[in-house]
Design brief:
Layout (H helix, E strand, L loop, with lengths): L1 E5 L4 H12 L3 E6 L7 H10 L4 E4 L5 H10 L3 E6 L6 H6 L1 H21 L5 E6 L23 H19 L5 E6 L1 E3 L18 H9 L6 E4 L11 E2 L1 E3 H16 L7 E6 L5 E2 H12 L5 E4 L14 H7 L7 H17 L1
The structure holds nicotinamide-adenine-dinucleotide and uridine-diphosphate-N-acetylglucosamine (UD1).
Amino acid sequence: MKILVTGGLGYIGSHTVVALINQGYEVVIIDNLSNSSIEVLEGITAITNKTPEFHKIDLREKNTVAQFFDQHKDIKGIIHFAASKAVGESVEKPLLYYENNISSLVYLLQEMKKRNLSNFIFSSSCTVYGQADELPITENAPVKKAESPYGNTKLIGENMIEDFCQSQKEFKAISLRYFNPIGAHSSAKIGELPIGTPQNLVPFITQTAIGKRKELSVFGDDYNTPDGTCIRDYIHVMDLAEAHVRALERLLKAETKNNYEVFNLGTGSGSSVMEIIKTFEKVTAQKLPYKIAGRRAGDITAAFADTQKANEILGWKSKRSLEEALSSAWNWEINVNKN
Ligand code: NAD
Ligand code: UD1
């Protein structure tokens, strides 16, 4: 069965492509390589012994997208990862983010409507909850005003898909709200490839440990948490990838009660920045240079998922440990620096 993965050469997309191929799906990838490299395709091939069909297409090019669907009439589902995701950049260039993340989504949905295609999975984020009033965060927690244009594109994206589902009862979609994806495939042949200085914690840690960065700045140790540093729910990217396969199956088997559903994807437990540093040092036997710095603007104190809905309804649970995730991130960093 043929599945379109947009942004399939990116970090989460490439791991999901591997999980899909492992489950026997035929994958077609669209990516404009704005935040990824064609070499990722080689990594996917080395892991799966299959090379997915790849199309270098920018989803903002409406006519090209239409042509693609004219030539691919047998697509049975779409997993839509393609988006710009740097929070800071989105504050500086909001229109770029609205254009890339929103217009691409509109064009895809328009093509799906035109061709009576269903089964759509959207990459959303726990950022839609902001600082939730209660922890762990359930899907019923109120969504908050977005802290950044990036976060707003996720909120708008979710709302747009829900509205579309209301108007098109035969169209089915799932939004997946990711907590903090980390780590890499166990082969170390694919992983996260941040361009420039990493903004996220784990890539910054691995680049510091390998000597590319002088030291990690811990953004604040005066939060209202046991050790004063922020708490997040770090989930292994392969667990996240496998959740997409499960969500897709739910759509394909018409298991959904409503034609639009939302699921949190996390492990259900939170770790502080200091716990991440200590666990990284333990599993890799590396000493990590770090200093305590001021708080980062816009950071929330703590977030971790209530995973009951995904466990019970999706029939999915994260399996891999934090140690495994950090160790795979380190192996990937070592591998990247060999080449
Ligand atoms: P990524 O940047 O590694 O992957 C996105 C891919 O989409 C890249 O390969 C990029 O080249 C491609 N792309 C971007 N704009 C495109 C366009 N107009 N046309 C075609 N291809 C385009 O990001 P990721 O970390 O894999 O994230 C995937 C999705 O998950 C994104 O929608 C992101 O917002 C969402 N998300 C990510 C995180 C995270 O922490 N990584 C957390 C929550 C949600
Ligand atoms: C980031 C994004 C958020 C996205 C989420 C999931 C920002 C402001 N927010 O949030 O939109 O949904 O990822 O991927 O970028 N930290 C340090 N030093 C560093 C880097 C991070 O101490 O050099 C701390 C942060 O303060 C935070 C934790 O590590 O407490 C995790 O940071 P990060 O990986 O950026 O994720 P989020 O803050 O959850």
